[in-house]
Amino acid sequence: MATNLQPARSAGDRDDFETAASDSISLHDLERFWQQAINLRYVILAIIVFTLIVGLIMTLLQTPLYRSTARIEISQIESDVTNIGDVQLQNIAKDRQYFATQYELLQSRSLASRVVSAGNLTRDKNFLEAFGLGEKAPSEATAAKIVLSNITIAPIEFSSLVDISFSSPDPKLSASIANLWAQEFLGMNFDKRFGSNVQAQKFLGDQISEMREKLERSEQELIDYANANEIVNITPITSEDGSTGGGQTLASSELSALSGDLARATAARIEAESALRASATAAGAGGATTTLKSRLSEVQAKLASLRSQFGPSYPQIVALEAEEASLKSSMQGASNDISRELRANLQKALLQEQGLQREFDRAKSGYLGQQGQGVRYGILKREVDTNRQLYDALLQRFKEVGVVGAGENNMVVVDKAEIARQPYEPSLTRNLLLAFLFGTFASGALVILRETMDQSIRNPSDVKRVLDLPVLGLIPLIPEGAVHEQLGDKKSELNEAYQATRTNLTFLTDKGAPATLMFTSTRPDEGKTLTGVAVAESFGHLGKRVLYIDADLRNSGLHEIFDNVPQPGVGLSGYLAGNDDFAKSIVALDSHPFDILPSGRKPPNPGELLAGNRLQLLLEQLSTRYDHVIIDSPPVLGLADALEIASVVDGVVFVVEANSGKIRTIQQALSRLETSGARIFGAIVTKLDDRNQTYGYGYGYGYGHSYGDKDDS
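Above: the chain sequence. Below: its structure as tokens.
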């Protein structure tokens, strides 16, 4: 397998590469999540099946619910406005606000309390049984909360219609409460629109009843007082505002009549007295007296005429004198009769005046007695009049409010709720769909959690993308005990993988594979020992002189690859400690086409031994004898051994175990190598299994077998 290789790169190059790669990190993460989901496909399938079973069980155990729906129409209150654009926009905004307000009122606690009170739900047996409240009546607030939690308000789009739905285990109860909810909402709206007039009418009615009673009491008090004091009001006086005053009582009327009669009697008496005083003149005023007086004047005139001519004995004179005497006698009699008549008239007038005076004095005394009582009577009378005026005013206002308060509700019930014939809950289809969605969500959460927490190398392309290292080889995970068999079989999957790796190594430099290569890893058990041995054997089969150096002075892993590795001479540790005869420590293997320089005895100070210049001198001497020197180095993290070895070799091949470890620790190990000045040629990804096959890697390397434990130390 040919790969476009980069011989080395610096820490600055890696930072630039990671910055550039961050733009596509989201797409890459999606790919990682998808591959993780494929790897967990059986677990995801089990989760979804489990949630579907749970959904089915919950559906069977769920209490059936019945829902009834009442539909009402909410009409906007018309307003008389000018047809202007701005006003129309304002009206549209007000309409939206109005309908939004009504929708909220339909779901208000006050309406729920009103429904509970109107339906007496706290004592309704069907309601208590439907919601499992037992025989004890709940509080109104609790019942309102239950009702409100089961009501659904659904405005119909592009219309003024609203559906009011109620659900409960009892179909009759659902229909009843849905209808009651609609009716109470309409009633609440009517009270809000005309409630002030209704309340005013009720208030006025109460006031009228009280004022009627008060008027009756005041009238009764006035009548009782008038009867007790014998006050008879004959002609009540009506003022301009319609109220009646004290008026004329019987006593005042009688006194007034007697006063007139007395005045007339007094005038008659005075007239009689005047007539009596002028009785002579008054008597002559009569017809007979006048005649006699006229005749007497004639007779006396004739006598005077005759006497001037005749003597006293003249017969005519005597006759006239006799007639004169007779006339005077007649006149005297007539005067006496007139005087008697005048005195009789005067006596009659005087008696009449005296009688009227007594009656007047009596009436006056009674009237004066009633004057003090009239004050109280007037007070009672004014109270009666005031109460009557208030009563009439309240009655008139009551009639006016009754006329104004009559109006139509702008909301009506379009369709009443009917009793549901079958339950709408539980819905098997919906519950299974929800269970499936929940299972999918849980599976997705599991995938995200696994992928987020798993910071290992799953996709070998991450080596290039994240670590900025070329991939030199992809090595499958081999079953335990099959390593020797796979390496010995040239057609085996493991052998082919390492042959491809060896081919990639030959392209690292213009002279082919480097002469001295160090194989290391971040931590133990990542397959670097097996990789080093396999690469050495692959080069050996090409006829190359190859030496494998076990430079892990702390924990050698050769015994896990080879059953018995002889330890002749002092080994690498002995040479580094000062023994120059390293040739005696090299082991030639009959079954493998390469030699081995064992690590030797474990020294107490391996880091100090590797830090000296003897390792570099050793490699210089070995380069004259071998074409390739493969060095198995200790892990990088926690030790300085690998850093010392990396500084004297041509380059480093970094071994990364798939599906294990964390990328951040790998980056730290690479950073330490770069700090030491090492030249990192690339990375080999080991132990690929079926989890990596979904990324397009694997070659069919025995996936599906039972894999063993780690194969080196």
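Residues 1-25, 79-89, 699-713 have pLDDT under 50 and may be disordered.
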